[in-house]
Amino acid sequence: MPAITGHDPALLRDATLAHLPGIIARPNYDRSRTFPGLVHIGAGAFNRSHLAVYLDDLLNLSDQKRWGEFGVGLLPADKQIHDALVEQDFLYGLLLVDTDQQTYRIVGSLVGHLYAPDSIEEVIGKLSSPDCSIISLTVTEGGYFIEDSSGRFLADHEDIRHDLEHPDRPRTWVGYVAEAADRRMNRGTGPFTLLSCDNLHANGAAARKALLSFAEARSGALHNWIEMNISFPNSMVDRITPRTTDENRATIANKFGVRDLAPVVSEPFRQWVLEDNFVAGRPAWELVGAQMTTDVAPYEMTKMRLLNGGHSTIGYVADLLGYSTIAQAACDPLLRRLLIQFMAEVRPTLKQLPGIDLDQYTATIVKRFSNAAIRDQVARICSDGCAKMTKFIVPSLIDLLGRGEHPRVLPFVIASWLHYLRGQDENNLQMTISDPSLGSLQPFLDAGGGNAFLALSTRSLFGDLAFTYPQLVTQVQSALDQLRSHGVRATIEQTLL
Ligand code: CS2
After folding, report:
1. How far apart are CA 379 and CA 274, in angstroms?
2. Which of 89, 118, 270, 280 could connect to 133 by a Cys-Cys bridge, CB 3.0–4.6 Å?
């Protein structure tokens, strides 16, 4: 496509929509007439490339003009995006990046946004309003305050304690939703659905557990009201959405002629499987490609174990080798073999699913990871390792060991992550480790990061694994030693023998 030149691109706003270059798809509906019946907590890049786009597709259908999204940001990092969205009347663009072409469209389904720390009362007002029928969440894998190994709610977490002590000044999604539920209970406002859109096993059940445990600590009546009035569908979400870069913003300005301060970037692929359990109505997402089902578990397990686990499998070694994008890693023949072998190892833990051919599914993952144009960041994949190991790697390991199998790649993945935690790559360059839960590995880190037992005996991450399967400790230790003495490539070769 020819570059658009000649004048400064106009800022994306309601008023400039009609003047955008014709090639850019944009809302064909009147945004002021949408009804924000869905309030989404955590309207970051993933929400805006996934749920909000399904809603936008629906709004673009001639007879589906109702559901819009109202977004809420909880974290300091959300402030910048909030300011940008306000400037743009909450419009933003989606840059779809395929290997050989990029398209850009404007998404109009987000019709408002609040930065919660500056607008606590307004946010609670939105969540407790009778207009709100669905509260949805993208708060990351580690954002549910539930310990994986025990299923225990982390009632002693500093932020949870804060929210219990100050119910009208919450910090966490749990505190906000509980306060909204309390007001709805007292005012006789109707039921609503809490829809989790995070990558975790039985995400609806996890949201339910967190909210009910928190509510119980507030009052028995609130706990009971929530049990009777809120539904918690499980869902599986999928679309690779890298962090937006300045280069992406420049592409949008130069190629498409738009100044967009809040664009999101994603691959063309998308998938959404939801349990049809919405107590107060829902958008007809099935009309735009979502799959409604009675049992999400096998879909979610397939996705998390193969795709998310696959990302972790090549992510840590990629960082150690100095790669910055996932495509560089997936196109490295040795890392690609590791990924393929990892998926072969995990496959026996998965059920055959109607409509999903696992050969094709795994081949598609290799292709999606190899999309060089998308420049998905290795740093993004390596972040939050504690939560990712426990959700994407450990469950497959438990299944295989429990059946008497002898996995080789999964223990290597754990070793590669532990080795990565030293914070130095193979060229002795510093790597930035971003993981809010790293404190749980303090004894391992304090001892120099070389003793596998100290890591694997961290019960909050690995439960009883180290004690039930001592051979696992031996295996991880041996890979860790080899990584230190012979480096990443030699250790992968050895693992793949
Ligand atoms: C990734 C996911 O963060 C990760 O480790 O595996 O963000 C992944 O890109 C998405 O789940 C794709 O749907």
Report:
1. 29
2. 280
Residues 6+ apart with CB under 8 A from 84: 261, 262
Q: Given a cut of 90, is residue 383 above it in pLDDT? A: yes
Apex CA 379: angle with CA 496 and CA 79, to 5°? 155
Per the confidence metrics, is the pTM higher than 0.90? Answer: yes
Across the range 165-194, mean pLDDT stands at: 97
E-assigned strand segments in 233-356: 235-238, 258-259, 264-266, 271-275, 291-293
Measured by CA distance, the residue closest to atom 9 of ligand 1 is: 240
Ligand 1 pocket at CB < 6 A:
199, 238-240, 308, 311, 381, 388
For the chain, what is the radius of gyration of the CA atoms? 23
Euclidean distance between the first and the last CA atom of the chain, given in angstroms as a whole number: 47
For the segment 55-101, what is each residue's pLDDT rounded down to a tens digit?
999 999 988 878 999 999 999 999 999 999 999 999 999 999 998 99
> Angle at the Cα of 313 (from 298 to 352), degrees rounded to 5?
20
Residue type at 320? L
Place of tokens 């051979």: 471
Give the model's pLDDT for residue 1.
43
Tokens of 41: 């907590």
Which of 240, 304, 371 is the pocket-test mutation for ligand 1 (most atoms within 8 Å of CB)?
240
Using CA positions, which residue lies closest to atom 13 of ligand 1? 238
